Amino acid sequence: MTKLGFRFTFDHIYEEMDFEDMLGRLLAYESEHKANYQIPKKYPPDPELGAWVAAVRRIGRDSIDATEREALDDIGFAWVSKRKCGSKFMNGFRELKSQFVRELGTDAEFETLDYQDDFKEIWGKVLSANTESERWLVAQRDAHRLGKLSDARVAYMDQLLGLDWREC
Predict the structure, then answer these.
(1) Which parts of the sequence belong to the Helicase-associated domain (predicted)?
(2) CB 155: neighbour CB atoms within 10 A?
(3) pLDDT tens figures, 27-47
């Protein structure tokens, strides 16, 4: 938080905010919405609360202070969000990944695949069959080359086994 009272980023919100204050805000949210603590990450009426809850989940139950963990457990805090990110990036990523899984077939087939050759062939089929996914993939590559793809998104892209997405 700056001296002006404006926050430019929520990167360290868990460490910066008073736990008791945030717990109170969380309880007020739950009292009003009865949503099993499924607060949107970008909650317009209280963006700090949404970001703080996301940070708590990202840090994880086993990694936060024991007293704070107990307080969250006592209120029945949902440690795993049931919400899915609806960003254009995540929607494109999930769609591309599901196309790959459909083309791949069953898990049993996955065990017999030759990582390099078979995966390249499957990705070729997926991308030739869906120009929208191919355009999305090229957009991610271009964003990466320009330094505009976050480390988190690069990590997601690297999960696409056998796809050299940086060179597509």
Answers:
(1) 16-77
(2) 9
(3) 999 999 998 898 888 889 999
User: Are 115 and 57 within one domain?
Assistant: no
Helix (H, G, I), strand (E, B) or coil at 103: helix
Sign, CA torsion 103/109/111/113: negative
pLDDT surpassing 70 at residue 76: yes
What six digits make up the tokens of 24?
């109170």
Does residue 154 sit within a domain? Answer: yes
What stretches of 12-166 adopt beta strand conformation (E)?
none
Spatial distance between the Cα atoms of 122 and 125, rounded to a whole number of angstroms: 5
Global model pTM greater than 0.70:
no
Q: How many domains does the chain have?
A: 2
Query: What token pair was written down for 148?
Result: 């505009």
Determine the structural domain holding residue 144 and report its residue range.
88-158
Which residues in 61-71 are b (16+ Cβ under 10 Å) and which e?
eeebeeebbee
Task: State which H helix or E strand residue 82 sits in.
Answer: none
Whether 58 and 107 share a structural domain: no
Domain assignment present for residue 94? The answer is yes
Q: How confident is the model at residue 110 (pLDDT cuts 50, 70, 90)?
A: very low
What is the DSSP-derived secondary structure letter of residue 17?
S
